[in-house]
């Protein structure tokens, strides 16, 4: 039968199956902000993920073109597009995993906190949609400032009575990806062999790479430690400055987001031993090493032995994070 333009822009025309061939369960994943700098490569990479059976691409602009484009890839996931706020609920209904890169990025000279006013509103609206349409979904929140947008989402879910700290995760995987890369450079290793836990938050000094816990076991000189800590903490700014006004990290972020989303999906599938760093809202410490399972975060690991520098950063992260939480509460529940 002939197809019309609307069918092309909204995605797959004939297939409605939600199972990946071969018997393994496929998951339904929504990307909100799918037409953006992160959203587009993220959509492409998620379309290539064999664990995804249905991929919903939502944005307030340009999602029809991205949907038409991505839907031509000959991989299993069924792709559907949703344009505009009045389609948000449809985009979210039935989703297992919701990935959120919606929001404005930094320009040179800005901090991530400068994005709070705009992005807090965007995340609040999206979180209200999630609470209503897919309260059991795992949420991967990328929009900055992560230190504040995750508390905003938590407060919206609490207000709606759907809050489950196991399912709300701020994505700090890019810090880990950078740490693995920079540490591997210093050690002269393949980055795929290196694992650096990064804890704390996702802004400047709150990004705390635990260089004392790098695998494979190694040690660094004082100069190496200072160089690595500073480079990892300022990786985002390095990209913002190199892009000179054209935005922040998008490609490495899409890569990191897919790595993290894939870990969440493997956890949902019931795979054992899926351990990553993520920003969580339960104690003990914001971005932490966590074990992912069928219900999201199933275990939060203690930080392990810290050196004096790491202990002092820990104290300042706590102070900053308390402020972010109060701001989030005021934003979501101004009367409290
Ligand atoms: P971008 O401007 O290229 O794309 C953002 C997209 O969000 C746009 O397509 C825009 O239309 C869409 N959008 C805006 N309002 C929306 C709404 N209400 N609902 C749905 N979509 C909406 O920006 P980008 O480079 O993709 O970055 C997105 C966000 O991710 C920024 O806040 C950035 O700071 C953040 N970021 C986080 C990390 C991290 O490590 N967590 C890394 C890089 C970027
Ligand atoms: C990053 O770390 O690259 C992101 O948080 C984007 C930014 O503004 O630095």
From TrEMBL:
<dbReference type="GO" id="GO:0030060">
    <property type="term" value="F:L-malate dehydrogenase (NAD+) activity"/>
</dbReference>
<keyword id="KW-0576">Peroxisome</keyword>
<dbReference type="GO" id="GO:0006097">
    <property type="term" value="P:glyoxylate cycle"/>
</dbReference>
<keyword id="KW-0560">Oxidoreductase</keyword>
<keyword id="KW-0329">Glyoxylate bypass</keyword>
<dbReference type="GO" id="GO:0006099">
    <property type="term" value="P:tricarboxylic acid cycle"/>
</dbReference>
<dbReference type="GO" id="GO:0006108">
    <property type="term" value="P:malate metabolic process"/>
</dbReference>
<protein>
    <recommendedName>
        <fullName>Malate dehydrogenase</fullName>
        <ecNumber>1.1.1.37</ecNumber>
    </recommendedName>
</protein>
<feature type="domain" description="Lactate/malate dehydrogenase C-terminal">
    <location>
        <begin position="172"/>
        <end position="311"/>
    </location>
</feature>
<keyword id="KW-0520">NAD</keyword>
<comment type="subunit">
    <text>Homodimer.</text>
</comment>
<comment type="similarity">
    <text>Belongs to the LDH/MDH superfamily. MDH type 1 family.</text>
</comment>
<dbReference type="GO" id="GO:0005777">
    <property type="term" value="C:peroxisome"/>
</dbReference>
<dbReference type="GO" id="GO:0009507">
    <property type="term" value="C:chloroplast"/>
</dbReference>
<keyword id="KW-0816">Tricarboxylic acid cycle</keyword>
<feature type="domain" description="Lactate/malate dehydrogenase N-terminal">
    <location>
        <begin position="28"/>
        <end position="170"/>
    </location>
</feature>
């Amino acid at each position: 039968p002939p197809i019309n333009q609307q069918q092309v822009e909204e995605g797959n025309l004939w297939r409605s199956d939600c199972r990946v061939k071969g018997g393994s369960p496929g998951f339904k994943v929504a990307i909100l902000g799918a037409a953006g700098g992160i959203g587009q490569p993220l959509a492409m990479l998620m379309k290539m993920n064999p664990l995804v059976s249905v991929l919903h691409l939502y944005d307030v602009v340009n999602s029809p073109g991205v949907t038409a484009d991505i839907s031509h890839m000959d991989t299993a996931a069924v792709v559907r597009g949703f344009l505009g706020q009045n389609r948000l609920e449809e985009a979210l209904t039935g989703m297992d995993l919701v990935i959120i890169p919606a929001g404005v990025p930094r320009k040179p000279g800005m901090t991530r906190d400068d994005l709070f006013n705009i992005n807090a509103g965007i995340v609040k609206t999206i979180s209200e949609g999630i609470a209503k349409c897919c309260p059991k979904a795992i949420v991967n929140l990328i929009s900055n400032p992560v230190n504040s947008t995750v508390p905003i989402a938590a407060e919206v879910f609490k207000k709606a009575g759907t809050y489950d700290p196991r399912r709300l995760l701020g994505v700090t995987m890019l810090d880990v990806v950078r740490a693995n890369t920079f540490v591997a450079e210093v050690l002269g290793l393949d980055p795929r062999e290196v694992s650096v836990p990064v804890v704390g938050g996702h802004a400047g000094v709150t990004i705390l790479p635990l260089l004392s816990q790098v695998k494979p076991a190694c040690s660094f000189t004082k100069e190496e430690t200072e160089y690595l800590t500073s480079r990892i903490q300022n990786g985002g700014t390095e990209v913002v400055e190199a892009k000179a006004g054209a935005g922040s990290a998008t490609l490495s972020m899409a890569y990191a987001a897919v790595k993290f989303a894939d870990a969440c999906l493997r956890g949902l599938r019931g795979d054992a031993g899926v351990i990553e760093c993520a920003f969580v809202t339960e104690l003990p410490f914001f971005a932490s090493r966590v074990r992912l399972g069928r219900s999201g975060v199933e275990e939060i690991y203690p930080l392990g032995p810290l050196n004096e520098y790491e202990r002092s950063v820990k104290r300042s992260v706590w102070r900053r994070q308390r402020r972010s939480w109060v701001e989030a509460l005021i934003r979501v529940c101004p009367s409290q």
